[in-house]
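ERR on first pass: missing label on line 2. Operator R.T. fixed the label and resubmitted. Corrected input:
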Amino acid sequence: MTPIIQVNDLNVWFGKRRILRNLSFDIQPRQVTAFIGPSNCGKTTVIRCLNRLNDLQVDYRHTGEILINGEELYARKNKTTEIARKISMVFEKPILFKKSIYENVAYSARIRGIKHVTQISNIVDECLMKAHLWNEVKDHLHTDPSLLSIGQQQQLCIARALACEPEILIFDEPCSQLDATETPKIETLIQTLKQQFTIIFVTNKRRQAARVSDVAGFLYNGELVEIGKTEQIFTTPTDNRTENYVTGRLG
Amino acid sequence: MDKTKLLFNIIAVPILIIVLTVYLTLTFTVPTVNSEVSFESMNINRINLVKVRLMWMIPVLCVAIIVSVVIAFVVEEWLSTNNLIRRIIEPQIIILSSIPSIVYGILAIYYLVFNPISSSYVSLAFIVILLVVPITTLSAQNAIRNIDISIRHAAYAVGATKTKVILDHVLPLSLLEILGGICHTISRTLAVAALCILVSILVESPISGQTIVNIVHNIGILLLLVLLFSIVSSFLRKNPNVMY
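pass 2 clean. output:
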């Protein structure tokens, strides 16, 4: 199978600080790939390279190549905004726009250039259904989203990301702010969404990565120590550091 | 805060500006300015001359405010922190904004009251720009900086362009703070104008009963406007950034 993302020899610096070292990996379509590792190991930097959010940092620079469907991500002709539409991201904290529930989702549709009200309305309904939020919000679409629970707010962020019609969905520790009752909802949602999208997610919860992902990559001090099938990473890791991490002796 | 209240706040500032303009237009009579008038005759018209000059500064004030807000957005959104232009502009804005208004007041008095015939509109406009631009820019910059960076990231993450992010999120969320800053600046400018009119009345000799009425009429209303703008400024700046 042709990988949807190919990363070759990626190095990232913020100023003089080197964050990522010689990262090379492939991501297959319609799979959940998890990046695990202790705090400050470069997990978020990796995923922010994939949708070029790091470009917003003043002192960011990188070497190496990132290919999306065989096309260089940082090629001059590729506009950041178009990339962001193909590779949508859900953040650690649910970041909602200061708009109603409906407008939060409709915003992404409008960004895509859709102007017809009925079409936007259909997209909003569809995305809220896909995000398993429709039943909870269908009667108060035009109300303040901050009244929703944190888990529902995160689902709303997922719905907003889906409204971009992305090929790849990136989740940056999506359950870190959620309690034990809301985490399974997001995990189930990720499992459902992988039928349609390629999913990359970052977590520092080992068990969650084991439950949700098909492929797992272990990052340590900016280095991709190991990447492979989740089962293999958690049962028969080839590197000592990975073994120490998955068994809880490290991080 | 609901939409109606937000709308009220946004409309309040233009209304105040219109009220101020109407007041100045109705109150100030426009005398014929003749550069060859004698000092004695000029002395008689000094107050009116000062008023006319001040009235002509209203468009300058409006342009200066718009330019300041544009500068703030360009500096904050387009120039990175280590950009050379930003590194040059920012310290100047901070230094100029820390100069007390009385300094500009003295400059304005020199040009308007004691040297009214020879002083050009350009020099007066320059004083207004120096008085308005740094403070408005600084307050607008602070308002823009107060917007959570994560809002920008969330908008970029769904494919919004920089212009869209500014127009859809940064500007609406920082608008009240920016308007608060503008009100503060207008209040400062009006205070300087009041000072100029007060001095122009006082230097007129002899001080008649009519002069006292003039003082009460002009300075009183100007100071009330100063107070009004100041109150609106504090009110706008305290409001939370809620938009729906």
